[in-house]
Automatic annotation (TrEMBL):
The chain crosses the membrane at residues 19-36, 42-61, 90-110. It comes from Rubrivivax albus. The keyword Transmembrane helix applies. Essential subunit of the Sec protein translocation channel SecYEG. Clamps together the 2 halves of SecY. May contact the channel plug during translocation. Keywords: Cell membrane, Membrane, Protein transport, Translocation, Transmembrane, Transmembrane helix, Transport. It is found in: Membrane. NCBIfam families: PRK05740.1-1 (NF004371), secE_bact (TIGR00964). GO terms for cellular component: plasma membrane. Belongs to the SecE/SEC61-gamma family. Component of the Sec protein translocase complex. Heterotrimer consisting of SecY, SecE and SecG subunits. The heterotrimers can form oligomers, although 1 heterotrimer is thought to be able to translocate proteins. Interacts with the ribosome. Interacts with SecDF, and other proteins may be involved. Interacts with SecA. The gene is secE. GO terms for biological process: intracellular protein transmembrane transport; protein secretion; protein targeting; protein transport by the Sec complex. GO terms for molecular function: protein transmembrane transporter activity. InterPro entries: SecE_bac, SecE_sf, Translocase_SecE/Sec61-g. This is Protein translocase subunit SecE.
């Protein structure tokens, strides 16, 4: 078997600065929303959204953001490869699951009643 290649994470100072700037923009957006309490609501929401969008853009320009985009693309590619069941197959499997649940419920009920009868009636004689 082949061993997987070790994952190397290289964080440059520029990436760290981009991530820190993204966090600062995010916190700034929330702070601006509350600091602009005297302004109309639309202006507060606009300031919040503008700073949040700026934070997202700065994040996606950094290396972790690019890796996240790559992961999303790979995930979408894998989802396209999945062979989904037909409606008939899905209904059949659902019926099998329901039937199994009913059989297990009956089995557990019968087991519970049998053990209850053996313990309380035969061994302890509590129910006479």
């Amino acid at each position: 078997m082949s061993t997987p290649a070790p994952v190397e994470t290289v964080s440059t100072a520029a990436d760290k600065a981009k991530l820190a700037g993204s966090v600062v923009l995010l916190v700034g957006g929330v702070a601006a929303f509350y600091l602009l309490a005297q302004q109309p609501l639309w202006m507060r929401v606009l300031a919040l959204l503008a700073l949040l969008i700026a934070a997202v853009v700065v994040f996606f320009v950094s290396e972790p953001g690019k890796q996240l985009i790559g992961f999303g693309r790979d995930s979408a590619r894998e989802v396209r490869k999945v062979v989904w069941p037909t409606r008939n197959e899905a209904l059949q499997m659902t019926a099998y699951v329901f039937a199994f649940v009913v059989v297990m419920a009956l089995f557990l009920w019968l087991t519970d009643k049998t053990l209850s009868w053996v313990l309380y009636d035969l061994i302890l004689g509590w129910r006479s």
